[in-house]
Amino acid sequence: xxxxxxQTVEIALGPKGAxxxxxxxxxxxxxxxxxxxxxxxxxxxxxxxxKAPQTPKVVELLRTAQEWRRQLDAGGVTNxxxxxxxxxxxxxxxxxxxALTRLAPEIQDHVLSLPATAHRSAITEKALRPIALLxxxxxxxxxxxxxxxxxx
Length: 152
Fold this sequence. Notes:
The protein is mainly alpha-helical. Helix content is about 50%, strand content about 10%. Helix 4 (about 80-85) packs across helix 5 (about 90-100) and helix 7 (about 125-130) packs antiparallel against helix 8.
């Protein structure tokens, strides 16, 4: 005959906060010594942990673009093609990233101050590209504020 042991599991008998209010019941089961009772469903036990907040990709790209601009201005690198070879990306991609430095200073400050989030940021490099192509900084700011309003 197999050996069994009793295991007691406390369960909440009501809505959220039932444990805090003391509405708790006990369930006793006889289980084999090598088993345990789990009150969570298999789906709940296998749930992935929540994503850790991360800095939005556009923030990292703008920082990279600013650093590349400093290197070009200081003479550390001769041109964007050299940056592309060093980074292992295409010259076109370097141009796309460098275009972020043409944004109005207020927009750059706003992008650099974006908080870390667990989900994708609404302000993306792709959304900023057409704004960066404009020469008029006031128009850039207007379009950027329109972009922010769309994301709310």
